[in-house]
Specification:
With 363 residues, this protein is mainly β. Helix content is 9%, strand content 45%. Strands 1-4-3-2-28 form a five-stranded mixed β-sheet. Strands 5-6-7-8 form a four-stranded antiparallel β-sheet, with no helix packed on it. Strands 9-10-11-12 form a four-stranded antiparallel β-sheet, with no helix packed on it.
């Protein structure tokens, strides 16, 4: 095509102002999410709770609700439902039956809400720096802690701490239950003497430490695959003392079956996620990476590049295999959430709260 033909085609495309108007209107509509400001929140399946950390010591954590089927976003729904702020640094949420459990780290609280209305049902207090909560059954839950070297055991009928489980000088982060075992990673060295290079194995019924698995430093996230194998992602340490690695662990023998080591110490892989089928992993390492559970080497190229985005957290919708990735932007403004299809196509964008750090899928 000659330069003259190109100019002519360009002129013909925009010659009709009415056509141009409708083209722009359709484009703008397709890129804009409908934001809903309910006076009384209502939630329905399938949907996504986005837990926004907020700024440390500022108390501006919040909860965003996204309804994919209607493509609607409701921000600050905890405050709207309860007329009180969520607190200081919310970092985790899980569901059990009709209840949601929101961990607010720097407030030392786990809030319990009604999953369909967001209404306050109770809170677990007396915690120092809670990180995650694992619901073992309808009566009992465990709470990990960034500073305390023990797990808090909670009675879910009273929301009171009934006892603690000593972790022998180590702090705790994520918890994954497989059968009658609970695997707990020792992520931070902030308040402990031993190296933070351990996955502890506890008896789910008694809380007794029955084994431990040594990995590289800073195991930050864990998931279970379709074969009931445990996957652990380690950053290697914030000071780049060790090589990052991805581990596959046999939960029956508590042994490492596969170790995939990153070649660059300065990288920081984190936020491991898995699809509902349990056969594909995703994680963040500047960009977004994807790997099949049967692979024997790490992906050489990104699944999606970050570009100018500041990717902060990743979650995989279990029932649709869509990947949600947050962008913390400058850590001051409301962050963004980008939604990708299983093939890596960008299918949606959401404005969440400040520092969106965790996705809880309600389905």
């Amino acid at each position: 095509m000659t330069k003259q033909q190109a100019q002519k085609n360009k002129y013909m495309k925009f010659k009709n102002p009415i056509l141009l108007f409708w083209m722009l209107a359709i484009l703008l509509t397709s890129c804009t999410k409908k934001t809903v400001h309910p006076t009384t929140p209502t939630f329905q399946k399938p949907g996504v709770f986005i837990v926004n950390e907020g700024n440390f010591t500022t108390g501006n954590a919040s909860l965003t609700w996204y309804l994919p089927e209607k493509d609607t976003v409701s921000r600050d729904v905890f405050y709207i439902a309860n007329k009180v702020p969520l607190g200081d640094v919310a970092n985790f949420m899980t569901t059990y039956n009709d209840k949601g459990f929101i961990v607010v780290n720097n407030s030392g609280i786990v809030y319990v809400i009604d999953l369909y209305t967001g209404a306050f049902l109770g809170k677990i207090s007396g915690l120092t720096s809670p990180r995650e909560i694992l619901i073992l059954n309808k009566n009992s839950a465990w709470v990990s802690d960034l500073f305390n070297k023990y797990i808090s055991v909670v009675d879910l009928n009273t929301y009171r701490i009934t006892r603690t489980i000593d972790l022998h000088g180590r702090t705790s982060e994520s918890m994954v239950q497989i059968g009658n075992k609970v695997f707990i990673n020792n992520w931070s060295k902030l308040n402990q003497t031993p190296l933070n290079n351990m996955v502890m194995v506890l008896d789910a019924a008694t809380g007794t430490i029955i084994d431990s698995i040594t990995v590289t430093r800073e195991p930050n996230s864990m998931v279970t695959d379709a074969n009931n194998k445990l996957w652990v992602l380690c950053s290697g340490g914030y000071d780049n003392t060790g090589f990052p690695a991805l581990y596959q662990i046999n939960p029956n023998s508590d042994t490492i079956e596969k170790m995939l080591t990153f070649s660059d110490k300065t990288t920081n892989p984190f936020s491991l996620g898995i699809n509902g089928a349990g056969n594909t992993l995703w994680f963040l390492n500047g960009d977004i990476y994807k790997i099949n559970i049967n692979a024997n080497q790490l992906p050489a190229i990104p699944w999606v590049t970050s570009g100018l985005h500041n990717f902060y957290s990743l979650g995989v919708r279990p029932d649709k295999e869509s990947v949600y990735v947050s962008d913390a932007l400058d850590y001051v403004r409301n962050g963004k959430v980008y939604i990708y299809s299983s093939t890596g196509e960008l299918t949606g964008e959401i404005e969440a709260g400040i520092i969106p750090g965790f996705f809880c899928f309600f389905y």
